[in-house]
Structure formats: C-alpha cells, structure tokens
Amino acid sequence: MSDKRLEDFFTLPAAQRSQVLLEAIVAQHRYHFERNAAYQQTLAARGVGLQIGPSDLARLLRPAALAFKSYIELIGPFPQDDPQGFLRWLSDQLSVSLPRDRWPAFRRRYRTLEALLCDVERIYADLGLEIVTSSGASGRASIVARNAATVELAVEAFFTGIHRAWGISHGTAMIFVMPENTRVAMARVARLGTRQLDWAAASPVYYTMPFSATPDLIRIRAGRTFRPGLEGWIEQRMLSPFMAWANECQATPRYVATTLARLRECARTGRPLMLLGGLVQLHAIARQASVRLPPGSRVATGGGMKEQYPFTPAQIRADLSAAFGGAPVSDVYGMAEANWAAFECPQGNYHIPPWVYAVVTDDDDRIVSGPDATGLLAFLDPIGGGGLIPPFFQTADRVRLINGGSEYDPVRVCPCGYDTAFIAGNIRRVDLVEEAGCAAQI
Amino acid sequence: MAVDVFDGYWLPTALRERVLTGATWETLWLKGGTLTTQDTPDAVAVRWPRLTPVQWNTLLEGLHQARTVGGREVLARWQAVLDVALTQLTEQSPAMLPALSTCTGYSPQMLAMALGQGDLVKPSSLAAALEFRPTWSVATRWEQMTGLPGRVRFFPQRTLDRATSRLVSGSPLCRPAPPIDLALGFAAGNVPGTALVIALLGGLANCAAGDKTLSPAVLVRNSRHEPLFAPWVLSVVEAIDPALVAGLAVLIWDYGDDGDKDAAMQGELMRRAGLMIAAAGDDTIAALDAIRAGVAPTLRFHCHGHKASFAVVQNQPSEIGQLKSTIPHLAALDSALWDQNGCLSARAHFVEGDAEGYAQALVNELRALSTSLPRGTTPRRLIHRAFDAYTALASTSQVRVYSTYDDDFAVIVDTRAWNAKTLRRTVNACTGRVIIVCPVKDALDAPGFLRWIPAANLQSVSVALAQDRVLEFAQAAGACGVTAVRSLGRAAFPQLAYSWDGLLPLDMGHLRPEGHFTTVEFDDLRQEIEATAERWKL
User: Do B431 and A439 touch (CB under 8 A)?
Assistant: First the structure.
C-alpha cells in the first residue's frame, strides 16, 4: 500500500495522484478481498477475483446503503433482539477478526440498540472499535464500524479539510449544534477530533444540543420504524408524539438559547468561530436573533434536509448569512460510510479530498468517463479509508463531478484555486425510479 | 441543421387551423423515457401547443359540435376501422418505431411486438361488455358477461352492502349516469398506449343513454414522456373514418409552470366535464382530485394510481403441469414486457411445486428474451441492486440468486418466511426485469400474501393453475383487492372488456355502490395458455 500521508496528496500533480491512488486501490482490494467475507461474497458473485484490472474498478463499488443496512434483511431492524446474529453480520463486514471466544460475553438480548453497540465497543475495546450510524431519518440507520486507525484518518481528513478549504485551525472556537453524545457520524468525528487534537486547549468547543441522540431515540423520533407489540404501540402512540412535542417546545428553545449565548460570548471576545449544524437547526437559531460573528468566523451546514420544511436550502442560507453578520455560510457533504467529507468553496463547489478517487457511474453502473461527468457519485478511498472495511462505495447521490478519477482538465480547475476533484452544483438523492407512472412503489 | 419536430398532440384536422392559429408552442426533448436537452445526441424533439383560454373555448366548442357518432355505432365503427388501421400502422412502423423507441426508452423490438398484438384490442368484445347489466347477485357469485368468456364478480366495499347483497340479489347493481358533453382523460407515459385506451373508454361515457345520444367530446392529457403513440394511431384512424375521432383531442393541459393559472385552467376543464379518467402516479391523482374537489365535486373520477401485479404458477404435475416447457416462457414475458415499469407487469412469482426448476427455466427464457426482446433504458442499476442485496442474503441458504451479475435481469428464489415488509420490499425491488420467486405450498396461499398490500395498490394476477382451482383462487384474490385474473403470458395485454382496476366498461356510463369488479378473462385456462404460447412464439 502507499506510504503517502493524506497531506502529501495536496502537492502531488494530478496525473501522479491518480496513478498512486489506482495502485493503492489494487493493493487495498487484495487486502480486503482476502479478509472481508461480505466484500468477497459480493465481488465474487459479480465475477471479480483477487486479481483485478482497470476494467474491474466499477465492480468494486458497493452501494453504501446496501452494505451497512444489510443487517436488516438478515436479522431484522432491531439487532438488540439478536446480538449473536448482529455479531455474525458485523464480523462479515470487517476485515479484522472479531474474536468469537468473546461472543458469549454478550447478553442474549438488549433493551436498546445503543446498549448493544456500547457492549460491542466495550468487549472489543482492544480493537478500538467506534460504531457510528447514519442519521437514520428513515428509521433504519446504517451501522458502520471504525477502529482507532480509521478514526484517526477520519479526524485527519475532516480537520485537514476545514483547514484547507476554509482556513479553520487551532484557535478557532467550535460550536457544534449537535448532541455531544451521539453516534451520528459527523458529530462523532467532530467530538473525537476535537479531543484527539486537543482543540479545547487553544479555544473553546461547545455542543449545544441538550440531549443525547442514541440510534433508538432517533428512530422513534423519525416516526417510521417502531418496535413490535406493545413496546411499538407505546413508541408510536406516546413516545414519538411526545418527542416531537419536546423537540419543538423544549429542546429547540434550549439549544437556540444556548447557541446564541455561546455565539455572543465569542463575539464579545472577538474570537473567530465555526458554527456547525443542520440546516433546520441553524435556521431556528437565525430566526431567533442576529449576532455579528467575529472576522474569520464561518457557518457550516451539513446533513441536507432530512424532513419536510417550508424553506429551501437557498432561503435558509440567505437567512443564516443575514443573521450572522454576513459570515460565510458553507456546506459540508459527507456520509457515515465515508471516512472523508467534501467542503463547499466560495464558488459553491464541493471539493473532494485529493486522496479520494471519486468517479460517477451511469444508470448501468459503468464509470462515466470525461473530466465533466454526471451520474451517481462513487468513491474509492484507499489511503484514508483504513483497513477495517473496503472503502469503495457507490452513493445514491446524483452529482456533476469535475476532474474526477483519472480525468483531469486544467481548464476546469475550480476558480477558487483549490485543485481537487469537485462536485459542481446540486446534489440530488436518487431513491426511486423517477417516472414510475402507474407502477407502484409500495 | 434542421431538426424534425414531432407533434406530441392530436387534434381533428377540421379543428386544427381554427384552434392553433396564434398558438404558442412548447418544444421538449426526449431520450430514453426522460426529458432532456437539445444538445443530447439523438434526442427527439416534440412539440405541443399552449392554448389561451379563448383557444380552449374554441377547441371545446369545436369538439362538441363535431360529434356525430354515438351509442352502439361507436364500437362498431372502431371495429370496422381496426383491421385497416393495423395494416397501415404496421406499414408505417419502420418510420415511427425509432422515434417511439428513443422517446420511451423501450427497445424497437419490444414496441414492435406490442404493436403486433393490436388484434387483441377487440371493440366487439367491448361492445358485448357494455351490454352487461349486473344485478346484486354478482356480489354473491361469479357470473358471465353474455358473449364473453370468463367470469365476473363484484366485491362491495361497504360492510352493509356485503351483508345485504343476497337479500337484494335481483335488483340492478348499477343505474345509468346522466349523459355528459365532455370526458377528460389524463395519461401517464410509463407504458405506451394509455392515452389511446382512455380516449376510447371516455367515448363510451354515454353508453347507458341509448343509441340516439352522441358520445361526449373527449379531451385527453397526453404524456410528455410518451407523446407520439396516440397521435400516430389517431392520425391513421382519422384517415379511415374522420367522424369517429372528430370529437377527440389529445393535448397537454397541465402546463405546470404557473401554479394558479394552471390550476384554474384545469379547474375550468373539470367544471365542464362529466367524467374524468386518469392513469398516473398517486401524487398526480391526488393533485387532480384536489382540484376536482374544489371546483367540480360531482365530477365522476375514475382514477388508476400506483398498482402492482403478480404471477401465480402451479409448477408440478397436473393438467397445467403438462405445459411445463411453455410456462416459464410465458411467465418471463409477463415480467419482461415494459421492463416492469407498468402496473401490469408481474413482480413476485408465487410458485407451487418445483420453484428452483422454475427459476432456472426463467433464467434461460429471460436470456433468450434479452436478444429477441431486449430491455429498454430502465437503469440496469436496479437489477444490480437486487442482485447485490439478495447475494448478501445467500449465506442464510434461504435465498438463492439464479442469474449472474452480467445478465440484464435477475431471478431470485427467496424461501425465507415472508411478512408484510418482505413483500413490500420485494415488490419495490422487482423493477427492470427482476423476478423474485416465492415458493408456496399451495397456489391458494398466494392471496394470503397479497393481503399485506393495500387493496388500492393491487391490480392483476396472471395464472397457470389447474382449471378447477381458478374460481376459488379468483375469489380469494378478488377479496384482497385483485381486479383481474388472466392467463399466464397475457399480463401486459389485458382485454378492455374486462375489469381495469375494478371498473368494467359499463362503469363509464353507470353509477353503482363503491367496490370493485374482479374478472377472470378466460373460460379454459389450458386452451388460453396454449393459444398464448402460440401467439408469443418469438
């Protein structure tokens, strides 16, 4: 595998960069194919073996949602009911061994998914497992494991990214409009990163959501998947409406007030800050009051729109800019399955880190050639993806990708000057056949 | 460079000049069943007129005045036109099929095959169906529509109607609807021909009013995604019998770029109409219904929203079992035609008997169809998703994937214990030539599965069963909400004389209690399967 560090890729010429990445992809494939049961099973069924050539690249890509939600079809949507089944599934997803002699240490059932995941982390503490989830807006979260090495890489990727793209570095206060205790990937990386980098030594780090957000609570609040039987009835009829009420009447006023207090505190001291949160959450703050943020500050949005909301992202961003004294408002594109994030530049483009080999695929799952290509975003992250899971995924996001993969046209480099592959324009989630007509999706 | 621009609308020749003078035009570009841009290579340009309120008035008045045909004469003339029209369409098809294929994304072979079955449209059968005057007894037993093979039964929606149907079994089930001047149609474009079917049915709305009453004018909203087929066929028909289509127009009437004006215009059309027939997605249906409820609450609305269909096969030694080599071929066609983009395509196949042998035979048939009836532009990604998802389950040894990743279809046998969620995910996965086989101990277990799907989303089941089990099966399936039972191999070719989503042709001109008709479209299933196999020798 490559001995390059993530930072090194910023200075590599484009042609050399893609060559290094392609070699690393081949090496990573061999490594994971020999160790990862789920990856091997999927690829072998696709007719891919240990040896691969350039034409096999598209076949290495597994749909992200499919890989990390596959437990649902195997053991059902509630792994806490079948910890042994979950361990079998998890074991198949990883390229490291989960020693089976510890499986008896798990309980026969857990009350919550969170309790089960905590036990996985505790019982395999020596592996440094950190289990993150997608935001779970559908009520069925992707469950993605990371280990100490991949967490370190994710932290490096995230904080290198915000430094390179936005100039955020030590000394900038961080205000995360997120719960401190959650498994949602971006929040988890933010928490681990600020700790790992000892961010708080130079500037304050705040989490302003006053509650924890376990996968179970997120599921109930999403209101789409409930436990069976009486427990589910209570979740659906009592807890979910209560949580919706509590969110609107209790949690929102509190996080709005807390965030505003932190913003004003930083404004008073003149300390630049980065305010990071979801569009809807940040909008609630912006609609409450205005705070002129100190120079060098930035508002960062992430996670897209997870729910029905009467304002468009563009309207929200305009409101945010107005409320925070014209501070730049930028978006972050990421997902639980990726060990990287793409940061929006002043041109409105999302820059993919240079160590990620990003491509788009067409409707037939072929890689679209050309330096300006549109299709479903897919990525191969052989350097930053770590050795725990094969980091080759296809997303469900339709994008226009410039200078992706081995394609490079110097004329198309983003005018912001940041010379990486980038996503131009909107990112659109593709879940269903668009023109279904009378053919039902039920 | 000059580009051919196709007309994506149809107006009677006599009205064209009067209506279209001064009209503005909307030109869109289509390729692979989706709207695209002018710079897309090989995209087809299609245009529609955008009419002003004055032009709409002129059109509606013109259609109203141009009507000269009514009663039984309508279908008799359609029947007379059909043979000549089919010949002409076949002659013209080499020129039209490439454009149709580009617009819809379906292969020319698939379109040609469908067009070649035009003789299955039988206005004479439709005429026979219009004579059917059911009493409440049809809610208690399977009855025959005189002159037509098969059986029909009514499933009342209201509990009271179900309870009292025996007591009033001699009373008429339906009463004539008042004659109307205008029928509106709204056609989706996921499969070709919907606008034509709606145009034909809309013209029957005064069928209960006697032979002296003229058919209503019919105005069908054409699909932007499949805009060429109806105008082509109607042009051919007009050349043969202009009076037959003199009161018919196929246009765009949902411009979609000016919310209030758009809704007002649609509302005005609805106010003038007496019947609206829409085949579209549930969201579109709901939007139309919202306008209707606001401006024309008494307008009769026949809506055909999202539906799913299935196949049920007894694949074991029996009378039908002797047709073993034929069954997989017909079953493959039922899912391959229109690449499961239509409500008629069979999704899951419930199989009694040798499910594994059935699946393997399906693979062989679908491979052959890949050449003779190639799939269209439906994303192959959908097949790959199903392949990957079910491959991941193969370790449980309850799921087996029979196709390969490189096949342009997927065949999977899923022997897990199914529940409502499994069935829902299966239905959703079966798109683009994905067949999931569900083994059942008894073919009559299949309706038990279908019960998990909302009745409003169920449509038809194509079957290969022992003849003596057909009505028993149809009874159970109809009670779940299935509205048509047809022979295997005929899924994509329903007969207009039978139930379409619970409505019979007589429903165009009659009122009745809520509920649905379920029809069995054959008398002797074995004969029907043999005839279908003969027809589909590709």
Answer: yes
